[in-house]
Each structure stands twice: as structure tokens, then as C-alpha cells.
Amino acid sequence: MTVDERHLSRLFAAVSDPTRRAILERLRGTPARLDEALRGASEPALRAHPEGKWCAKGHAGHLLTVEALWQTRIGQYLEGAAELTAADMENRATDRFAYGSRPLESILAGFRAARAQTLAMLDPLSLEDARRVANHPGWIGRCGSSTSASSPP
């Protein structure tokens, strides 16, 4: 066991079931918070690109796009993969889907459905499952040689 694996084992040993449940509830509530933040905004406001950045619909669509990556990583993690799929740091998929031109309801509904699938993968997991280690290619060298599947991309 490497130093990083020992550190992660201690970190996850400290995670209690109430903490696990709180994390899952936070994830479960994200679609409602996203809906609340965007619902009622005008279409021009939802499509505005401040300083060349994504519009609000683009940010919401990005959450939908990366949810598939989370699902892939969770599957790999549970199968015992040594390394998880890397993210596309250029966000080509988010740009390709042109969320700014899509109806807000389709983006929100897609994210709600995708997050429900993610939670269906996470809900049955135990704290023991969370103690496994897999390499996260985007974090190697920044916070150790390995991390858990629950670390940010």
C-alpha cells in the first residue's frame, strides 16, 4: 500500500454513514436547485454569453454532459479499474451539443434523468466500497498518485 493509499484509507475510514447519506442527498437535490436557479429567467438571459463564456443553458448542459462521465467512472471504479477515464478538459462535447439553442426544459429533464441514473449506481454502495482506490488521470501529481472515484474531475 502506497503512502497515498494509506492516506485515502484513513480519509475514507473517517467518513460516516450520516456523511455518506448527506452527500447523496446533496447530489439528489442538485436538479431541483438547478431548476430553481434557471426557471423563470428570460430566454435572452439564459443565452447571454458573458465575456465569451458559456451561457446559463450551456452551464446546465455541461452538468448533463459530464454526468455521463461520472457514470462511466463509477462503473470503472466498481469493476476495479486501475485508472479512471480522463475528462475532456477542452469540453468539446458541451460545445458540440450547443445547449444555448436547446429548450431549457429538455436540458433540465435530461439532467434530472441522468442524475437519477447516477444515484441509482451510488445509493447501494457501502462505505467499504468507497475505500477502494483508482488512479484519476487529471489529479495524478496534483494531489497524490491516486484518488477515489468521488474526487472532483
Overall spatial form: globular
Along the chain, the helix and strand elements come as HHHHHH
What fraction of the residues are assigned to beta strands by DSSP? under 5%
The oligomeric status of these chains comes to single chain
As a percent range, the share of helical residues equals 55-70%
Low-confidence stretches: 1-12, 141-153
Describe what is shown at a glance.
Helices cover 56% and strands 0% of the residues.
Features:
single chain, 153 residues, mainly alpha, 6 helices, 56% helix, globular, disordered N terminus, disordered C terminus
Explain what this protein looks like in three dimensions.
The chain is an all-alpha fold and 153 residues long. It has helices at 3-13, 17-38, 43-47, 56-78, 92-96, 104-122. The two termini are 24 Å apart. Residues 1-12 and 141-153 have low confidence and may be disordered.
Write the layout of secondary structure elements.
Layout: H1 3-13, H2 17-38, H3 43-47, H4 56-78, H5 92-96, H6 104-122
Helix pairs in contact: 2-6, 4-6
